[in-house]
Design brief:
mainly alpha, two-stranded parallel sheet, two-stranded antiparallel ribbon, about 75% helix, about 5% strand, globular
Length: about 400
Amino acid sequence: MLEISLNMYHAVALGAFLFWLGGVITSKISLLNRYCIPAPLVGGLCFSIVNCILYSTGAASITFDDTLQSVFMIMFFTTVGFTVSIPALLKGGKAVLLCLLVAVVMIPVQNFLGGGVMALFGKDPLLGIGCGSIALVGGPGTAAAYGPELEAAGAVGGSVVSIAAATFGLVAGSLMGGPTARSIIQRYNLTSTENDSEVMELSDETAEEKARAERVDTDSFTNAAILLIVASGIGTLLTALFNAIKIGPFTFTFPTYIGAMVIAAIIRNFCDSKRIILPSTAIDIWGSVSLSIFLAIALMTLKLWELASLAVPMVVMLLAQTVLMFFFARFVVFNVMGRDYEAAVMTSAFCGFGMGATPNAMANMQAITQKYGPAPTAYFVVPLVGSLFIDFMNTIIITSFLNLL
C-alpha cells in the first residue's frame, strides 16, 4: 500500500482547496443550498470518500499533520466567546430567557437518549453523546471539535460518528421544521398579528445593533486578529488551570478551547460595560474563515471505514433523536413559548438549530413567515439564542458529560 504523509502546510492547503471546491459544488446543486449544507462539509466529505476507497482497496493510505487544524479550531471557538453578551440576553427579555431555557434542557435529553441507545447495542455510550448534542445542537463545527475528544476518551470512531450525525441533523432539521409548524398553525388556526413594515423596522434595528455600524478596514481586521490571538493565548492557560482542578478522586478534562471562549466572553462583556466598540464584524469574518478551514481539514481526515460496525445503532439512534425533537418542539417549545403564532414559528426554528444549525432555523422561519405572515419576536429571539448563547452552554454541558462518563 502506498503511504502518503502530508505535513501541516500540505494539510491546511488541501483543506482550503476543499473549502473552495465545496463552495463550487453547493452553488451548482440547489438541494445542498436548500438544506444549508456548509461548503467545507461538502468538500471535506468528498475527499474522505475518495480516501476511504483508496484505503479499502489497499491502493493508498493518507495521513495528516493536524497541528494547524487545532489552531483554526481554537480561533473559531474564541470568536464564539466574543458573541456572548449578557446585556443582549437581558435586553431580549422573557422570550429569550425561555427559549434559551428550553434549548438548555434539550441538550442533556439528547445526550441521555444517545448514550442509552448505544448502551442497548453494547456500544460505548460516549458514541451516543457524539450523536447527541455534540452533533445535533452543536452542528458540524462542534462535532469536528469533540470527535477527537471522544476518541481520546476511548470511543473509537467518535469523529466519524459525530460528523455523520451532524450531517444527518442538518437535513432532518430542515425537513421537519416547516411541517411541524404548519400542523400547529392549521390546527389552532393561528395568524400573524404583525405587518411587514414593523418586522422590517425591527430587523433593521437588530442588524444595526449587531453590526454596530462598523466598517471592516485594515485597522478593524488587525484589531480583531490581536483580540483573538490574545484571548486564545490567555485561554490556554485558563484551560490548563481548569484541567488541574481535582475534587476528591475526581479530575476534570476540558477541551483546549474552553478557556479561550471564557476569556473572550469576559473581554466582550467588559467592553460592553465600558461602551467600548469591538470590531465585531471583523471578528465574525475571522470566525467564518477559521471554521471553514478547520471543518474542511476535520472532514477530509475522517476514517469512514470505522462506520461499518456502527451503522445499525446509528440509524436507530438518529431516528430516535428525530422523533424526540418532533415531540419536544411540538409539545414543549410551543407550549412554553406561548402557544401563539410566534411560538409556532419558533417551533420550526427550534427544529432547525436543535438538529442542525442556526442557518437551518432561519431558513425554516423564512419558509413559514413567507406563507403565513411576519413573526418579529421569533426573528429577534432565535438568532440571539442560536448564534450567541446555545453553543457556549452546549460546550459546558458536553464537557460535564464527558467528565462524568
